Amino acid sequence: MSRASRLFGLSLGYFMVLLDTTVLTVALPDLHASLGGGVAGLQWAVTGYTVTFAALLLTAGAVADRFGAHRVFAAGVVAFGVLSLLSAAAQTLPVLVVLRALLGVAGALCLPSSLAIIARLYPDPADRGRALGAWAAITGCALATGPVAGGLLVSVGGWRAVFLANVPVALLSLVLVRGVRVPATGRGLDWRAQLVACAFLAALTDAVIDRRAVSAIAAGVLAVVMFLVERRSASPAVPGAVVAEPGVRRGLVAGAAVNFALSGGLFVLTLSLQRHLGPVATGLAFLPLTLPTAFNPLVTGRLVARYGPRPPVLAGLTLLTLGCLTAAPVPWLGMLLIGFGVSFSLPALVTGVVQAAPEGAAGVASGLLNAVRQVGATLGVAVMGGLAAGTAFAAAAALCLVAGLILAIGGRRS
């Protein structure tokens, strides 16, 4: 297999994972009619996936470095395909919620391992920038097609078709990536530190999603425990050498801001659009936001290869700031600017964080970036969803502006 074929296979694996974060939403009415359950049950059918996905990204990155990214990626894709088949056959809502949570675990295995493999396949920084641009473009199609594909699949085969569609994608991904090898680093893995980190992220996510005081208190306690365990661990979940890199820290701040604005903005706009549009029409209304994520990362990859990751990230954060300020009064223009902002920022952020990470820590660094992004997305939905549209987008614009200033000033000093 050529490098291009393997890159496409890696992209398909994450395309499938990313698609499952949004595609089920438009299937909820049919799911409710088929399996019943209250509103809380339907919420967990969606969020059960994202909670485990976010909570296990740190561990998945460490596991990829420890045991070999190619093995972890293959295991994640196989598990995702099998669990998708089981989900399609689920007969009760609680069973589906459990299977969705397990799908999140499988998805977490796929993401940092795919980025670690790309870093191995493309050692030259310029080639890697272009490769990550192509990876982001293919995976960005999941964001562009998720709501529309979900509506079409449900109209043809009901909610079960949403899960069955994952199986051929998983098989094709495995075929294209076969034969690739990434040496294991042999880095130690402190499971106690990893479990505490996972529990902290899960509690934080649950506290934000369901606004439970108990989960918020648990997250606070676990944060203290995590700090103590990490200090004493020989193989911490978040290695100090990774976080000590200024480029990694700035990338984490920017990644959280981008996903805060994107996910929070999608939530606020969805509530507004679905007052008078159906599922498919709502998905089509989001095309000004989602289409740039399907093609613009290719441009971003070329820019990163030529100028480095910092200029595209700054451009993206600027567009996000302007888009958030415009989204409430002129939604289509705001969505267009947000879409271009996201598609400039995210591929360049991935490249910057992976390049800034110490040798042998690409999996951990990419897992940390995506864990922080998922937390940012969850906070975006919780914070922006509780505010009026104008105030919500103003808050997102302020956060993106601050992240841009940190990157601009810090990058100039380094």
From TrEMBL:
Organism placement in taxonomy: Bacteria, Bacillati, Actinomycetota, Actinomycetes, Streptosporangiales
Pfam families cross-referenced by the UniProt entry: MFS_1
UniProt keyword Amino-acid biosynthesis, yes or no: no
Bilayer-crossing regions: 41-60, 72-91, 97-119, 131-153, 159-177, 189-207, 213-230, 251-273, 285-305, 317-340, 387-409
Topological relation to the membrane, as annotated: Multi-pass membrane protein
Hydrolase is among the record's keywords: no
Keywords: Membrane, Transmembrane, Transmembrane helix, Transport
Domain Major facilitator superfamily (MFS) profile: 6-414
Location(s), subcellular: Cell membrane
Protein name: MFS transporter
